[in-house]
Design a protein that fits this description.
It is a single chain. The protein is of the alpha/beta class. It has one domain: Amidase signature (AS) domain (Amidase signature (AS) enzymes, Alpha-Beta Complex). The protein is about 35% helix and about 15% strand. The protein is built from 15 helices and eleven strands. The strands form two sheets. It has an eight-stranded mixed beta sheet with strand order 4-6-5-10-11-9-7-8, with helices on both faces. A three-stranded mixed beta sheet has the order 1-3-2. Helix 2 runs antiparallel to helix 3. The radius of gyration is 20 Å and the shape is globular.
Length: about 475
């Protein structure tokens, strides 16, 4: 076992506790040592509860001593994006409007993590109301990239990506409406999965755009994500929209092999405007998949223009409806980088209904054309090399910054409209020392397929094992 407990992955940490090789308190202290070391530079956290976490750690260690059945995540400390409600604890949602908000309920996903033996110790930085992809936050300060501080950390789960990368937490929950789990996972060099729409309950989670919102984990490895997903997935009576599909034992699919998996490489859209370092890393990753036994097939991605247009309508209209009262009463409390929400008020209801009604037929056609030929679609997560926070500062740089911010999420928002499961892993670094993301997307409820391929890729490479300079 590593001499630094924070270098353990989530599954390694949970398994070490079960084998009595380490205590929960030791894991917690390792996380806080890294927070002390790196967070002044990164600004990955909004609030912390060390005293409460110490008590939780001691309770977990006492339970270990007493014996008995332990959950899959027993004794593992975590912090999460600060938009998951926990009764009696602050939840800022990254906004001055909710700066003093204390929920009276606990999110179902947190309750399930509790039942599995995990505990949480803080809220992580995020884009205001989860409405941005760069990591800017006017109220709580921008979150910086742990690999190169002036650069974006991705968003909106920026603190989750940065905190996992710097071993401040063994994993973190995030939300994903247009890429907000996968973008920070890619930008910070960690693993993040957006499950199939409705696979995970959204009860007790701050909403942004109901038709597109998802909940999922960011962690160091695909195996870590598989374990968390097995805990949080499944129907929840508190969220009637949550799926009743059976939840597989995701870890059982992870054997380090990609034998027989047919992997599609798109010939349209996803690689059209890719920066050269990203394209080269993607090509090398495809070569690795071939060596792992995957069969590569180059295929067109259909209906992308319609998908993007409809996704744009849904997110603007639904976010505008969600924020209507606050935007009328407290417009001064909204940062310029989320002013795009206002445009939702000008979109006709007929356009919104068209975007909703076309979703099913478009998914059916996309699945036929893509998943009728392959098991998994591989794409770059972020098609461009990461820009700096200054370059994407919409308040100061205006349209140029907005264009760069849009380019970051060009490849991810497609799969929110389609509701498909997608995972991002690290597949290399650019000349600025910044991570490059590789995504695998599957058919509905095929999380096991994309986790299997991601795990095989990680067992054949070591990108996910590298430590950012901010931990030096």
């Amino acid at each position: 076992m590593t001499s630094d407990p924070s270098d353990l992955t989530l599954t390694e940490a949970a398994d070490a506790i079960r084998k009595r090789k380490i205590s929960s308190l030791e894991l917690l202290d390792a996380c806080f040592a890294n927070i002390e070391r790196a967070d002044k530079q990164l600004n990955a956290t909004i609030w912390l509860d060390y005293e409460g976490a110490v008590q939780s750690a001691r309770n977990a260690d006492d339970a270990m001593k007493r014996g008995g059945k332990l959950g899959l995540l027993h004794g593992v400390p975590m912090a999460h994006k600060d938009m998951f409600y926990r009764k009696g604890k602050p939840c800022t949602c990254g906004s001055p409007i909710r700066k003093d908000f204390v929920p009276e309920v606990t999110a179902s996903v947190l309750a399930r993590m509790d039942m599995a033996g995990a505990y949480s110790f803080g809220g992580l930085n995020m884009a205001e109301f989860a409405a941005g992809g760069t990591g800017h936050n006017k109220e709580f300060g921008d979150c910086h990239n742990p690999w190169n501080l002036p650069y974006v950390a991705g968003g909106s789960s920026s603190g989750s990506g940065a905190a996992v990368a710097t071993r401040m937490t063994y994993a973190a929950l995030g939300s994903d409406t247009g890429g907000s789990i996968r973008l920070p996972a890619a930008a910070c060099g960690v693993t993040g999965i957006k499950p199939t729409q409705t696979r995970v309950s959204r009860a007790g989670v701050m909403p942004l755009a109901f038709s597109l919102d998802n909940v999922g984990p960011l962690a160091r490895t695909a195996r870590d994500c598989a374990r968390i997903l097995s805990v949080i997935a499944g129907h929840d009576p508190l969220d009637p929209t949550s799926s009743t599909e059976d939840v597989p034992q995701y870890e059982e699919a992870l054997n380090g092999k990609a034998d027989g998996l047919k992997v599609g490489v798109p010939t349209t859209y996803f690689l059209d405007n890719t920066d050269q370092p990203v394209a080269l890393a993607f090509d090398e990753a495809v070569g690795m998949l071939i060596s792992l036994g995957a069969k590569i097939k180059r295929i067109p991605a259909p209906l992308i223009d319609a998908i993007l247009a409809y996704a744009h309508i849904l997110v603007q209209v639904e976010a505008a409806a969600r924020h209507a009262e606050w935007m009328r009463k407290r417009p001064q409390d909204y940062a310029p980088d989320i002013s795009w929400i206002y445009a939702g008020y000008a979109i006709p209801a007929t356009h919104y209904l068209e975007a909703l009604s076309r979703r099913g037929p478009i998914l059916k056609e996309f699945a036929k054309e893509v998943f009728g030929r392959v098991d998994v679609l591989a794409t770059p997560t972020i098609p461009i090399c990461l820009p700096t926070l200054a370059e994407t500062d919409i308040e100061r740089r205006g349209a140029d910054a907005e264009a760069k911010a849009r380019a970051i999420s060009a490849n991810t928002k497609v799969f929110n409209y389609l509701g498909l499961p997608t995972i991002s892993v690290n597949c290399g670094f650019d000349s600025n020392g910044l991570p490059i993301g590789l995504s695998f997307t599957g058919r509905p409820f095929a999380e096991a397929d994309i986790l299997k391929l991601a795990d095989a890729y990680q067992q054949g490479t070591d990108w996910h094992k590298r430590r950012p300079p901010s931990l030096a």
